[in-house]
Amino acid sequence: MTLDAAEFKWPIIATLLHALQYIRSLNRQTKTKYRLTKQFQKENKDKPFDRYNSNHPEMLAADRAFLNFQEQSIPFLTALWLQAVFVNPNKAGKLGVFWVLLRMVYPTLLGKQLENVNPKRVALVTFPCYMILYYMLGDVLRAGLQWQSGFFMFFFMIGFPMLAYNLA
């Protein structure tokens, strides 16, 4: 089976944007660490900066933004490419681009310091991102099982996440 790259234009764009956001998020984390290390060393010449035990709110926010993106990456890329190959590459790619754009906003909504985080602001990104993932995975499952029911998609997008949340 040969795949036509032009047919997968949108999933490729989404994947490349994902890679750029990964690098951007990692870069933010690294810059924060080096800036805080330099600042700490000026103030405490005899002690090294311990980023893991310092509980510095800026370092915690940078770590959270990067690690949250990283933990979402495997489900996202899996859902993106399963839907692209087995359902509809155009729809998968456009949903993927939207997902990445939402994730690009996450660090801003999280804030510069973790102690000032507003969960309602962060939910503006996390909730739609989860819905996109559930939709893509549900679409793949529905296509694989050849189910045509709208109820299935409703359950998978609304009922399943609620059930999983209540079991956790």
Task: Walk me through the structure.
The chain has 168 residues and is mostly helical. The chain has five helices and no strands. Its main location: membrane. The chain crosses the membrane at residues 122-141, 147-167. Keywords: Membrane, Transmembrane, Transmembrane helix.
Order of helices and strands: HHHHH
Q: What is the count of β-strands? A: 0
At CATH level 2, the architecture is Up-down Bundle
- CATH topology name, in short, is Four Helix Bundle (Hemerythrin (Met), subunit A)
Q: Which ranges are low-confidence, i.e. pLDDT below 50, for 5 or more consecutive residues? A: none
What can be said about the biggest beta sheet?
none
Question: What's the topology here?
Answer:
Elements lengths: L8 H35 L13 H30 L2 H22 L8 H27 L4 H18 L1
